[in-house]
Structure formats: structure tokens, C-alpha cells
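Narrative of activities, Objective 1.

The group set out to show that a structural description can be obtained from nothing but a protein's sequence at a throughput compatible with the screening campaign. Below is one input-output pair from the validation batch, recorded exactly as produced.
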Amino acid sequence: MLELALKFLEEKHTCPHCNEELTLCHAPPIHVGDGLGWGSEYLFICLNNDCPLFVNGWEYIETQFGHSGSYRFMRIPNSDESYNMMVGGKDAFTGSVVDIEALKRQNVRYQKEKEATAALDTCVAEKNLEPVLYLLLDNAATLSVRKRAAELLAPINDLACIEPLRNHKFSNSHLEQAINMAITAILKAHYLKECPYCAELIKERAKYCKHCHKDLD
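Output recorded for this entry:
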């Protein structure tokens, strides 16, 4: 996605109606006219509110169709295709401008997810908790990969996973349940339990918490 956006940004196009440079924007999910896709993730769009096409489009649409709207000129990247696209207001597409820095951040996160996913194959043998934790704590990671990571918690059997996982908010209840079951198994393997009052780890048969000084009977 990043590479494609950078490639398209090298293209320079101007609006034939106002001669302003077109802006690279994310394409809407459906074609406004026929419900079909645009065939591109990105579109070059004239965002000039003083463009004659946009200025005069309001009256034209009101007269022809009886509702409020106007047109923005748009062009498909790496193509000669262009359209006068109907829009419903002045803010249309202003929030869809391609943010290269945001794409770079997304790309970095995606690359880290790929690296962590690849490391799952050897993390149990290496007792390497890092890729498992990275995937579980990244809410944007693929859910199926996160579920696989959760299954590896108990085999790795590292107490260091408990605190960060307990402090993280999971939006998927099935994933959270799998993690809770893994934590229970890890605690049992170490003959430990969590204090019901302060959540610190204490011996499984402890009657008194040495951290919060609560009686557990």
C-alpha cells in the first residue's frame, strides 16, 4: 500500500476546470453511481472549492435532480480515465487525503507483525515470549494469528507474560478467554496463584498475601 501510494504521488495532474493540482485521496469503498469498485485504492481529486465545476455544480444538480450536491473532478491513477464525480457537500474527500506518514507507520506495524508471526514457529523451542506478546498486545494484528499466539503461552510457560496481558484490554472475548486459560495453566505449572485483592503472584497454598497483607481464608 505504501509503495503504491508513493508511486502515485510521483504523478502530477491538474484539474481541467481550474488548473489546480489534483490531490491523491483514498477511494471510497463503492462507486457512487453503480455500486461497483473503482478499480483503484486511490483517486486523484480536485479539492478546490473555488473550482468552476464545484461552484456551478450545486445549481445544476438542484435544477436537474432536485437535491443538494455538486461535482468534483477526479482521475484514476496510472490511467487516462477521469470523471466528474457527484459529491454531497464541501467536506467530501477532504478527510480522505493520503497521509504518507500514517501509511509509513502502518507499514512498519505490518512488517513487525510479519516478523513476529514468522517467529511463532520456533518460539516454544527457544522459550521466546517476545513475538507472542507482541502479537497479543497489538490489537491491529490478524485475529487468527493472535489466537495462535495465545495457544503458545502455556507451552512457553513464562510468568513474564501475565502482567502485560492482565493490563491489556482485549476486544475479542474468545481471544481473552484463551489467554485467561493459558495464564491459569502457567500459574498452576509454577504452583502460584493471583491474589484476589491486589493481583500479585503468591504461592498456590498461601493463606496470607505478603504484598497487600490480606488474609485469604
